[in-house]
Amino acid sequence: MAPRSGVERGASAQRPTPAQTTLVTAARNAASLPAADAVVPAPVVAAAPVAEPSGPGACALFLQRLPSVSRTQCEEALLTPSGSVSAHGVPLFWRDVPAPVVRGAADAPLRVLIAGAIHGDELTAAALALRWIALAEQSERPVHWRFIPVLNPDGLLAKPATRTNGRGVDLNRNFPTPGWEKDAPLYWDKRTKRDPRRFPGKSPLSEPESQFLHAQMAAFRPQLIVSIHAPYGVLDFDGPLSPPERLGRLWLDQVGIFPGSLGNYGGVHRGMPVVTIELPHALNMPADFEVRSMWRDLLRWMGEHWPEALGTEPRP
Fold it and tell me: Under CATH, domain 45-309 is a member of which superfamily?
């Protein structure tokens, strides 16, 4: 499928762990990943396995880079290493918030994957994903949440922080959209004028971070993906459902799809709805009220499409 027209935003020898082996297997199977409406009835999805800590924890690594996140908030997020690592060997941390156990519930809970800091210089994206973990714990809804607040730790930890990963690849142009081998290099050459910040890589899924997220799409089988970015202050959407009109102060503005982007791959070609949040600033977090307002609007929109996810309103 040819992408709809749009304007490029911001154009300017160690043995693998069991968790890593599982992710590699999932990645190999992901090419046959079914559409979202085919995966809804999955009866059981295991929680993210907890890897044994083997180095600095997430807060020791990231806290000084995350705007408006306190040490208490970071520690209470309980991020654990997934068993996968970045191009430079930094752990990729995650956190599952399983759905509350409800007696007599016949349906499997909705599965939602939230990813932040796909671009390492979008620090607020990581901070918002982490802040939302506490709200997910309070929501009491039949939703199984999986959070990956920092998908690109190499970029986030670089000085200065970089959009690309440790090998200079834009992870949001590295997903295996149909025709990637032709379209992605051509788009990079002709449309971005070979902008190094938007280099799509030499092949799709060439990077460990994009491989990891791709594997999560196969193993966790989310019915909704929320991808958090900055700093363009809009809301984007790709997928088979009617999009949310707004989340907090962010209004819908579907700016187009690009070769290798997560929205293109997940929303258009795999039928997994992808809500893309573009916060207004990459360094300054929205006010706490806005953080909660975006969350409430997301839950409200989810309830419109998955009534079983309505549950109760989050506590203030």
Answer: Zn peptidases (3.40.630.10)
